[in-house]
Specification:
Elements lengths: L1 H15 L1 H20 L4 H30 L1
């Protein structure tokens, strides 16, 4: 029975990785749009974009950790 729970944990992680993937895409789409509109704000927008990317990626890594925790 635990094998099925482990498989479901990895399936859940795969589904959970969709959200951060979309989030990172939206963050950098907004960054590119902002730099195209105001090139002089590039440095400020770049810092905000990378901070948002790091926080969004942390959710994906947290999901991977939970998949391994609940596998066993």
């Amino acid at each position: 029975m635990t094998g099925n729970i482990g498989n479901l944990a990895f399936l859940g992680y795969g589904l959970a990785a969709i959200g951060p993937g979309i989030g990172i895409g939206l963050i950098f789409a907004a960054y590119i749009n902002g730099v195209a509109r105001q090139p002089e704000a590039r440095n400020m927008l770049q810092t905000i974009a990378f901070t948002g990317m790091a926080l969004t990626e942390a959710l994906a890594i947290l999901g991977l950790v939970f998949a391994f925790v609940f596998k066993g």
